[in-house]
Write a structure and sequence with these properties.
Number of strands: 0
Shape: globular
Oligomer: single chain
Number of helices: 13
Radius of gyration: 20 Å
Strand content: under 5%
Structural class: mainly alpha
């Protein structure tokens, strides 16, 4: 049953939580290494999603898992939460939070490219133009708007921030091919992800007793980045009369993130970061508009109708 006002409220709450993540990542990394941060956050999200699965009475679905579904979950858990967040946290450890927030936002563009390559989706000339616009935005951010010399603030950090978007897009490509209910899938994905990150931390000898600020920050990220916010967002999409009405609200998030990063982390937000992020979002909006026009054309919808 649709309930558009409630959908907007839940979507805005989700956006508000996600907007705090750039700040939460950067501050928590002052107390924990990236691997330990991901370990605590992943187990927190796994426990939270487990509670949701129990409340929804979906626990019996786990007994009906096929080997194919189990393999898919193992693969998705490898990409998200393990590889995506591990690479993202490593990036935040090396570059300013504002760059991490902005550069990671290239993932919708990577998703479009992967959809073309792996899902055989059609691409138009305007879509190519939109992709180039968004990539130009990442260059503006990475080079701080200075094109007189090819130099990044931290080359490894920039590569990791952009690279994390590839892992996120890979996860969504696999996820789109799996018809299972989202909450159940995420719970199983995080079960595998928790095992991967535990093994990784043991191998890297990262296990430490966290301080209270580190523990609190990691648990906050586990709930409000990976767990509760995801549930709220899914609910908002189901309640909305059209997914675009709420999904477009996510464009607000990175700009709010920059404000919070400036206030709580103390970073001076560079004009190049804001301009670059705006360019990335512009490219994404153009791409979405192109897709919308193409869908209308396929359905035979014209202005006169």
């Amino acid at each position: 049953m649709h309930n558009q006002p409630k959908a907007y409220i839940l979507a805005l709450i989700s956006v508000a939580f996600w907007s705090t993540m750039g700040t939460a990542f950067k501050l928590t990394l002052n107390y924990l290494n990236p691997g330990m941060l991901l370990l605590i956050a992943t187990f927190t999200a796994f426990a939270f999603l487990g509670i949701v699965v129990l409340i929804k009475g979906k626990i019996t679905v786990l007994k009906q898992l096929t080997w194919r579904q189990t393999f898919n979950s193992a693969l998705m858990g490898l990409f998200n939460p393990f590889l995506y967040y591990l690479v993202l946290f490593e990036a935040y450890n090396l570059i300013p939070a504002q760059e991490g927030v902005a550069l990671n936002y290239i993932w919708p563009v990577i998703l479009v490219i992967f959809s073309i390559l792996f899902l055989k989706q059609h691409i138009t000339l305007i879509s190519v133009f939109a992709i180039l616009i968004s990539f130009f935005g990442t260059v503006v951010i990475a080079m701080h708007g200075d094109f007189t010399q090819f130099h990044f603030s931290n080359t490894t950090g920039v590569i990791l921030a952009v690279g994390s978007a590839f892992f996120w897009a890979s996860f969504w490509i696999i996820n789109m091919k799996d018809p299972r209910e989202a909450i159940v899938k995420m719970f199983i994905n995080f079960a595998f992800g928790a095992v991967y990150i535990l093994i990784w931390n043991i191998y890297k000898n990262n296990i430490i007793v966290p301080s209270f600020p580190g523990l609190a920050g990691a648990m906050y990220i586990g709930v409000f980045e990976m767990g509760l916010t995801f549930v709220l967002w899914l609910t908002a999409l189901k309640l909305s009369t059209h997914t675009a009405r709420v999904s477009n609200l996510v464009f607000i998030s990175p700009f709010i993130s920059l404000i919070l990063v400036s206030f709580f982390v103390g970073e001076k937000i560079l004009p190049s970061t804001v301009i670059g992020l705006a360019i990335i979002v512009l490219g994404i909006v153009i791409q979405q508009y192109s897709q919308w026009r193409e869908n209308r054309s396929e359905l035979g919808i014209t202005k006169s109708e």
